[in-house]
């Protein structure tokens, strides 16, 4: 039996923790996570950015790592995947301008989606959050509301599930966000 497959959509300056941690954690749980980026092929990489909360009015940004892609965007078929992972950072800001990306996000509207931080921009652009409770980085609140989503103003380390959509404001929410996502996927972790 092959491992259930998840699709992770990344782009340059994706938030480092928000791409690395879910990729590693979901892989550790036995999922096959295919990481893709429009315009890039399997074996290429995207650059990441590290966002931190250091007491300023917004996050700070520092250079991150090179995150390797293990699948090619143009060769995937959304029907092959049980769910979609959308990390934040600056990548969603420009990925939402790609019609193929929006089409892909819409194709997952009735399946499990985990979106964190600025990935709320992709959900809003895809117009799949009307009437749904959605968390995102606070600066994305206007976009969530303009897409008729109900912005969930929750703690930075919290997550919220609305149907099969699991969202969180930023990487400090990884434990809650990933736990809720695997519950939506139907997985159970026991010790």
UniProtKB/TrEMBL annotation:
Superkingdom of this protein's organism: Bacteria
Entry keywords, A to Z: Hydrolase, Protease
GO molecular function, one term: peptidase activity
Gene Ontology biological-process annotations: proteolysis
Residues annotated as domain DJ-1/PfpI: 5-182
Pfam families to which the protein is assigned, alphabetical: DJ-1_PfpI
UniProt-listed NCBIfam families: PfpI
Family (UniProt): Belongs to the peptidase C56 family.
Protein name according to UniProt: Protease
């Amino acid at each position: 039996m092959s491992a259930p497959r998840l699709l992770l959509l990344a782009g340059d300056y994706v938030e480092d923790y928000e791409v690395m941690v879910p990729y590693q954690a979901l892989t550790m749980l036995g999922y096959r996570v295919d990481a893709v980026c429009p315009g890039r092929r399997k074996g290429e990489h995207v650059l990441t950015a590290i966002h931190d909360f250091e007491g300023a009015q917004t996050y700070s940004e520092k250079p991150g790592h090179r995150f390797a892609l293990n699948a090619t965007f143009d060769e995937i078929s959304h029907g092959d995947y049980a769910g979609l992972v959308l990390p934040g950072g600056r990548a969603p800001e420009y990925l939402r301008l790609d019609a193929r990306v929006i089409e892909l996000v819409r194709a997952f509207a009735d399946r499990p989606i985990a979106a964190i931080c600025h990935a709320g921009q992709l959900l809003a652009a895809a117009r799949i959050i009307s009437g749904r409770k959605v968390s995102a980085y606070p600066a994305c609140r206007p976009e969530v509301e303009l897409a008729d989503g109900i912005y969930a103003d929750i703690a930075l380390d919290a997550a919220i599930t609305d149907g099969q959509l699991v969202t969180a404001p930023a990487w400090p929410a990884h434990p809650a966000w990933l736990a809720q996502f695997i519950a939506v996927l139907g997985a159970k972790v026991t010790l």
